[in-house]
Every structure is written in structure tokens, then in C-alpha cells.
Amino acid sequence: MHFIDLSIFILYMLAMLGVGFYFLKKNQGADDYYVGGRTMGSGHIGLSVVATDVGGGFSIGLGGLGFALGLSGSWMLFTGLLGAWLAAVFLIPKVKNKSAFQRFLTFPQIFGYYFNTRVALLAGVISAIGYTGFTSSQILAGAKLASGTFANLDLTTALLIMGVIAVVYTVMGGLKAVIYTDTIQWAILMGGLVFIGIPVSFLAVGGDMGALTFSQLFNWTWLAEQSSRSMNAIRTTLPPEFLSLTNITWQELVNWSITIIPIWFVGMTLYQRIYACRDERTAKRAWYLAGLFEWPIMAFMGVSLGILARVASEQGMFEALGAATGSAVDPETGLPMLLRTVLPVGLMGLMLSAYFSAILSTADSCLMASSGNIVTDIISYFRKMDPDAPSTLRLSQLVTLLVGAFALWLASTMTNVLDLMLYSYAFMVSGLFVPVIGALFWKRRSNAGAFWAMLAGGLVTVLLQIQERFSLPFGLDPNMFGLLASFVLYLTLTLLYPNKNRIEHDRNK
Fold first, then answer.
1. How would you write the pLDDT of the chain (509 residues) with one tens digit per residue?
2. Are residues 315 and 435 in the same domain?
3. Among 126, 170, 208, 307, which is least packed by CB within 10 angstroms?
4. What is the Cα–Cα distance from 204 to 221, expressed in whole angstroms?
């Protein structure tokens, strides 16, 4: 990598550490550390939500969908918009208007309120495992990107660099540092895509461009001619369905919906941000803003870059990198190869910073979520703690450091981190979604129903994911059957073994 690109990238990393150091002395207790003092505005929260939700998988997932499906891949994030707006309408009023929740720091505490401490402990364990896996996978993704971009940088060294940077600024600053760095990272990502990634890639697939110069960017005649060539290249290279929104099956839409929409109701990172908002109106505005950024803005930008990568691959632009041509290329490697091929010196450093912004915006949030689960839901189960005490803040920082170190070790020693993340995610969604919906929207409740629905839903999904002997009906995702198992068990046990005096208890609250 050129010295200019390397300098830009190093300055970006130092800026992230600076934000964490700035908030180091400002946090006074667990309230500040885990929920930002409950005074955050809708703008920062909304951008943090979408940066966390889209960021980590944006550079790979959406680009891969665009490469394989075309514009229809954007429907994946339409389910993100639906999830965000459904949560704004139904979930946020329940959480923000309940006086008992005003001091909550984590999502599993809601289970402790509606059910019992054993159910809350299980929810905390499930969430902590899931988010530790997420953190590990994001650190590994960043390390692979760095080692593939910087010459003579091995994966182990890249892991150490990425892990230390992500963990240190998160440990120092807590949720405020995470949210404000998410805002910075979002701005870098958007700027990189809008002003660098998309336009340069679009012009490059038109051919006959040579090495892009800054003078060409201000030559309107050249830009018009090159844009016309690029559009012709896209139309003649790709099949018509790639530029259509109907190149998708109903099974794909259903699978995306049952995988993505529930996370808006069980994601610890999202509950932390609901608690961090100053009031219900602020939280709703943040979620509406996040939904709009997910679809259509981020959705179409992501798949558009994937489409351009597919065109470049079909044209043989990646042959110099030793890659195959066309559909033989791994869809998730197409976008990184495109940017590596077409970006000139200086712009590569900016675009690489945008990539790392996407990764870090997810890694830091997942690290905070796992730490919050361990301190508030697991350690507090065995030892009573004052959330406002300085000792609790120090413990929170120590746990965040230890979780980050463990996630870094996991990423460096395990080859199936991605599998761990997927299984943890599936276990979390399939296990927690039905009980929390039942708790918030059905007056009849059962501790036994919630506990066993969590275990059954998650286990069914994971077992179906790892089995290879038979295919599932209609090509549906294992999450569908895990959620169904959780629903049946929750409904049955709640009817058979309802909590005594729980409705009266809620009324008194």
C-alpha cells in the first residue's frame, strides 16, 4: 500500500482511540457506561443503530447479494426497515413508558421483571455468548481485510492490531464512545461510498479509462462519455434480471424476514440504545431514521457496488489478481477486489477507512452488549451491585477488556468463528423472540414456558443448521422451525403452568 494511503488509515485509527480517551473521564457509573446516561439524541442514536446493524456485514453481505442477484438483493434490508419501524411502533412505547424499566441496563432484565431471575439469567447467558461470537467474527473480518490489503502483514499481526484498537476505545469510553464513533464511522462509510466507491467503480467498468486522474473528475465531457460507456457495459454484460427487483423467490423473502425482523426485538445492542434515548419520542425518531437509512439508502448502494463488481469480473478485470471470471468468483470477494483494482492512491486509503468503519461500528457495539450481559445479568445474579458505584464502573471496564481479549483469542485460534457467530445468532433469535413478545403483549405468563421456550427454540434451530441428512420443507430457514417450536412450547406451558399472582403483581407495579 502507498505511504499516503497508509497515513490516512493510521490517522483514522488514532481518531477512534481519541474518542474513547475523551470519554474515559466522563463516565461516572454503569448508567453512563452502558446506556450513555440516558440523555442521547435521536440523530446520534439513529446513525449508531444503522451503523451497528448494517455496518459489519455491509461490505461483504450486500456486495455479495448484488454480485449474485442484482438489484433484488436490496430486499434483504427492506426487512431491516420493517423491523425498525415495527419496533418503533410496538416495542419502544412498551419499554420507554414502563416506569420499572427506567433503571434497566440490559435486555434480559425485562425477563427478570416479567418472569423470574432464572429466566433472566438464561437470557443473559444466551445474549452474552451470541455477542461475544459477533465481536470475534468482526475482529477477524477486519484482520482479513487488513492482511489482504497491506503487503507483508500476516493475519496474526492484523488480528492484534484490529483487536487492540476496537477493544481499547470501547473499554475507555463505554456506550457514549461507541455511539459517537459510530456517527464518525457512518460519515466515513457514506462519504467513501457516495463520493469514491460507487462513482469510481461505475466509471471503471466503462473501459478505456486508464489510471483515473483528478483532472478527469472535473472534465464534464469526459464524465458524460465515460458514464454512457459504463451504462452500455452494464446492460450488455449482465442478464436483464440483474437490473430488476423481481429476481428473487418467496422463500428468500420469508427467510430474510424471519431472520432479520426478530433481531429488532431481541438485540441487546438495540435495547441499550432505547435506554440511552432521553424519551420515547427521541427513540422512535431514531428508529424511523435508522429504517430509512437501511432501505433504500444503504440497500441500493450496497447491491449497486456488487453489481459493478460482477460486471468487472465478467470483463476479466480481476484476472491480474489471480481470480476467476464471472459467476465462478466468490460473490463476497467481488467488491473488495473491485475497489482494490480501480481505486488510485489516496482514495484507497479513504475507502479502506470506510471499510474498517463498517466493521468497527459492529464490533464495538457487540462488545458492549456482551459486557453488559455479563456484568448486569450474570455477575449481578450472584452478587448484588450498586450500578452508580465507582467499583461497578471499574468492573464494567475490566469485563469489557476481558471479553475483548477472549474474542480476540477466539478469532486467532478457531477456524469456525463464522459458524459460531451464526449458531449463536440463531440460538439468540429463535430462543428469545417468542418469550419477549409474550411478556410484553400477553398478560398470562409462565416462568416455565419462557425458560423452556428459550432452550427449545434455540436448540431446534442450531440442530437443523448442523444437520446435513435432509432438506427442510419448501427451502425454509431453520429459524422458522425454531421459532415455531418456541411458540408451541411457550403457549402450551403458559396455559398449563401460568404464574400465580403475576397479573396482580404487574397491576401493582
1. 567 777 877 887 787 778 777 776 676 667 777 777 788 888 889 988 887 777 655 556 788 889 999 999 999 999 999 999 999 999 999 999 998 898 898 999 999 999 999 999 999 999 998 888 888 877 777 776 666 556 566 767 777 877 787 788 778 777 777 778 777 777 777 777 788 888 989 998 988 666 666 677 678 888 898 899 999 999 999 999 999 999 999 999 998 999 889 999 999 999 989 999 999 999 999 999 999 998 999 899 889 999 999 999 998 888 877 766 766 777 767 777 787 788 777 777 776 776 676 677 788 888 889 999 999 999 999 988 887 788 888 898 899 999 999 988 888 776 544 455 566 677 788 999 999 999 999 989 999 999 999 999 989 998 898 876 678 888 888 999 999 999 999 999 999 999 986 544 444 44
2. no
3. 208
4. 16
Give the total number of structural domains in the chain: 2
Q: Are residues 379 and 471 in the same domain?
A: no
- 340 & 191 share domain: yes
Backbone angles phi, psi at 106, to 5 degrees: -135, 165
Distances in Å between the alpha carbon of 223 and those of 203, 216, 252, 471, 478? Answer: 8, 7, 38, 50, 48
Four-point Cα dihedral 85, 30, 420, 469, nearest 10: -50
Q: Domain check: are 366 and 425 in the same one?
A: no
Phi/psi of residue 277, nearest 5 degrees? -70, 145
Backbone angles phi, psi at 470, to 5 degrees: -145, 155
In a domain, 395, yes or no: no
CATH no. for residue 130?
1.20.1730.10
DSSP letters, 309-363, are: HHHHHHTTTTGGGT---GGGS-HHHHHHHHHHHHPPTTHHHHHHHHHHHHHHHHH
- Residue pair 406/439 in contact (Cβ under 8 Å)? The answer is no
Q: What's this model's pTM, rounded to 2 decimal places?
A: 0.87
The answer to the question of residue 85 being in a domain is yes
Looking at the structure, tell me whether residues 350 and 263 fall in a common domain. yes
Residues 6+ apart with CB under 8 A from 390: 28, 29
Same domain membership, residue 367 and residue 478: no
Largest separation between any pair of C-alpha atoms in the chain: 77
Give the end of a domain, one of 363, 383, 403.
Answer: 383
393 is a domain residue: no
Q: How far apart are CA 202 and CA 205, in angstroms?
A: 6
Could you tell me if 262 and 303 lie in one domain?
yes
What are the φ and ψ backbone dihedral angles of 40, each rounded to 5 degrees?
Answer: -75, 150
Residue ending a domain, choose from 332, 365, 383: 383
| 443 & 336 share domain | no
In a domain, 398, yes or no: no
Burial-class residue 93 by CB neighbours within 10 Å (0-12, 13-18, 19+): middle
Joined grid coordinates for residue 398: 475490566
Q: Is there a contact between 85 and 91 (Cβ–Cβ < 8 Å)?
A: no
C-alpha to C-alpha distances, 455 to 267, 428, 432, nearest whole angstrom: 17, 10, 9
The span from the CA of 387 to the CA of 376, in Å, is: 9
